[in-house]
Write a structure and sequence with these properties.
Distance between the termini: 13 Å
Oligomer: single chain
Organism: Planococcus glaciei
CATH architecture: 3-Layer(aba) Sandwich
CATH superfamily: P-loop containing nucleotide triphosphate hydrolases
Structural class: alpha/beta
Helix content: 25-40%
Number of strands: 7
Shape: globular
Order of helices and strands: EHEHHEEEEHHHHE
Strand order of the largest sheet: 2-5-1-6-7
Protein name: Uridine kinase
Amino acid sequence: MDWQGFSGRTILGIDGFSRTGKTKLSKELEAHLKGRGLAVLVFHIDDFIVEKKRRYGTGLEEWQEYYFLQWEAEHLAEFFFGQLKSAEQLDLWVYDADQDSRSLQTISLPAEGVILVEGVFLQRKEWRRFFDCLVYLECPAERRFLRESENMQADRALLKRRYWKAEAYYEQMLKPAEQADWVLDSSTSKIGDAR
């Protein structure tokens, strides 16, 4: 992306499944852009999930709970993504994992600069249209499994039935690698070349 003559706000997404390196890339990109004198604000989509009682034990299959109930997708489309270009500040429900609760927080946005959003399923139909540019990180499931915590590795069955099945649905229905502006191979510890 050419940052020469940059003005206004650009909404940049970093999409990819768990353990593909989204957070690492967002930190590197944030530092790079700030080094070029741009204001950067980073959002993590996992900061906006709902409480456990709303996404576990609902009667749906576990992968459906993860994909369809983890976030209030339509609410975020209207009150988060839809406001990123023009709002001076946002009032957002932010999740606290330790307390399993959400609190309303006010976040100020820069008048000009880059709004960077990183997280899984960013190209779902409710959100895709709000991005100016989307990066998609690819990494095989087995490689990502090795990057999981010991607790998650010990429960491979949960990964398969809840997370990997939802990811397979996303790939099949949304074809994120085909829709993204940039696709990066993150299967090594270093982010690979764009294609």
